[in-house]
Design goal:
Elements lengths: L1 E6 L6 H10 L6 E7 L5 H17 L5 E5 L2 H5 L4 E4 L5 H13 L11 H24 L4 E4 L4 H11 L3 E4 L3 H13 L6 E8 L2 E9 L2 E2 L1 H9 L16 H7 L2 E2 L4 H4 L1 H13 L4 H17 L18 H14 L3 E8 L12 E9 L2 E4 L7 H23 L2 H10 L6 H14 L8
This protein binds nicotinamide-adenine-dinucleotide, 6-O-phosphono-alpha-D-glucopyranose and manganese (II) ion (2 copies).
Amino acid sequence: KLKLAVIGGGSSYTPELIEGVIKRADRLPVAQIDLVDIDAGREKLEIVTRLAQRMVSKAGLDITVRATLDRREAIKDASFIMTQLRVGGLAARARDERIPLQYNVIGQETTGPGGLAKALRTIPVLLDICRDIEELAPEAWLINFTNPAGMVTEAISKYTKVKALGLCNVPIHMHHDVAKAFNVDFDRIKTTFAGLNHLVWMSDVRLDGKDITGDLIEKLCDGAHMNMNNIHESPWDPDFLRGLGVIPCPYHRYFYMQDEMLAEEQEAAKSKGTRAEQVMKTEEELFELYRDPDLDIKPPQLEKRGGAYYSDVSLNLVDSLHNDTGMINVVNTVNNGAISNMPNDCVVEISSVIDSGGAHPISMGALADNQIGLARAVKSYESLAVEAAVHGDYSKALQALTANPLIPSAKIAKSILDDILEQNADYLPQF
Ligand code: NAD
Ligand code: G6P
Ligand code: MN
Ligand code: MN
């Protein structure tokens, strides 16, 4: 019998997770789900918990779903701990998105300075959670969805003993978009991913075993859809894409089309608002639906959020770990030589065989010349950011931002960093 602890249980994504558990009831003997939140999230937590209880009972399953503010109680005896929290809420995210825009730098929740700000707020909280897991459930798996997922997972791998894997829905979303572009079932497509979180490339795309990577690139050159709901879909330059030879993820647009993406963000910030400001409205609508005592399924409106298919990534992983399947899942895990020209001890996002022993990344050889420079630069930024977040180190934070290819100078990095530290003072006890 399995107990799951979901930290950040008041998230509007929780019904996704519950749906994932319900779909796999024959494979996963889940007996209890503890949804954990903090006092500020109490109301959301209660609404989501009641919906989760209705979903489970409609499915005819005997699963106890509980709301609790006692994180340690939830972690105790858990087999899987899922983290999906947002320190500072959407208001903090909106500040992360607006600060860089004042300096003509990409303002995004995970890519660029916004990701640094989120990492500084979030990593100490995750390390704290890991201390509880080390003490109360040392055998449990931590499945981290909390962004910036790559950096958070790297901090956990470097500073704790917890068995942890980081997740993102971008790879599975791209896989779905390939299936849609070829108008075939998801299962007939095979994909391979290597890179970093929100900087992952897809290669060796197969349909019934046949290599269709080149055909896919041609479809993308012709404007086929491959994107996430939270990202503006600027079209790719066909010559660039053909030369790249692999498929970039939607977040690569922030690097490869920095000027266009920045212009779009500046415009949105003046009209419809930044993504966080838009999501605040979507979230209100979702919770209005969740309150309805007659609602007992995941409402389709949740798909407006960027996290679509989260339940499949997360519960497929639980299935592989619990049932020792040896299935391939894309996870954030320690590189250990899988990408031969990236540091061994850094966390990468990579297709991996998952069994009860954890993730075994597939050996990818070297990233090509037109990928490795960007991947190394962004990884330098990330690893410096992890040090800054763990130790409250101003100098490392400044080195991190300046190393990020989206920031034009040390001077601008410093102005942005100072704004971040000032506007997040309540959430940065380490500084
Ligand atoms: P949200 O604003 O709804 O926050 C989720 C919950 O976390 C809230 O109920 C909040 O009260 C709670 N919380 C805040 N601090 C906490 C703490 N210290 N301990 C426990 N709970 C705490 O956020 P959301 O939009 O549902 O997103 C949740 C997280 O998932 C974010 O970090 C987001 O970036 C991430 N996310 C990741 C992916 C991915 O691909 N990995 C996709 C979507 C969202
Ligand atoms: C997906 C990503 C997440 C990201 C989210 C944003 O693109 O994989 O990591 O944070 O969507 O979605 P939102 O609806 O909150 O803007
Ligand atoms: Mn993601
Ligand atoms: Mn899509």
